[in-house]
Write a structure and sequence with these properties.
This protein is α+β, with helices and mostly antiparallel strands and about 180 residues long. The protein has 3 helices and 8 strands. About 20% of the residues lie in helices and about 30% in strands. The strands form 2 sheets. A 5-stranded antiparallel beta sheet has the order 7-6-5-4-8.
């Protein structure tokens, strides 16, 4: 998608997405054979459930039909959320990833996998998991030290706030859910 088309679509769609209480995270137009697909990724601090996605999808569809932003050819509109393993590129992404496990590529080289405990304007407070039975440690990571960051999917995370009783099979189960993309 050309920069001009991308900018035009963003200018057209961003106010509509914002009016629905969501942030416009990404826009992409891809060609699949003769078909074009306009993918719009939205999110918010409180998440975006299927009803909110459907509402914004209808609003975007009406707006696109009223304009020539996609030209005369047919296209498919897809509206969704960033997904479980999203890249963290803006301050609000880090805030939304609080309590999540994240893989950090550090500017000086190296990698760090840690859970975000808190976010402020300067950086992150992290919990680095212990290795081989050692206790987890905390660490401060300034934003300037981060080259890239991506949320990690956790399939067997135990709820640290409610570990349950060893003999209680109901509260001792693992949370094997994966955050779904709406």
């Amino acid at each position: 998608m050309s920069t001009t088309q991308s900018e035009r679509l963003r200018e057209l769609l961003e106010p509509l997405v914002a009016s629905q209480g969501l942030d416009l995270e990404e826009i992409a137009v891809d060609s699949v054979g003769r078909r074009r697909v306009l993918s719009v990724v939205v999110d918010s601090d409180t998440g975006a459930d299927l009803d909110r996605i459907a509402d914004v999808s209808r609003a975007l569809s009406v707006k696109l039909d009223e304009t020539d932003a996609m030209g005369d050819g047919e296209y498919t509109l897809e509206v969704g959320t960033p997904g479980a393993e999203r890249a963290l590129t803006q301050h609000r992404h880090y805030v939304r990833a609080t309590d999540r496990l994240v893989r950090f590529q550090l500017r000086e080289g190296g990698e760090l996998v840690a859970r975000i405990l808190a976010v402020d304007e300067d950086g992150l407070d992290l919990e680095v998991p212990g290795v081989k039975g050692r206790k987890a440690t905390t660490r401060r990571l300034p934003f300037g030290d981060i080259d890239r960051a991506r949320v990690q999917v956790e399939f067997n995370r135990k709820d640290a706030k409610n570990p349950g009783n060893p003999g209680d099979t109901d509260s001792d189960t693992d949370d094997n859910t994966k955050e779904e993309e709406a």
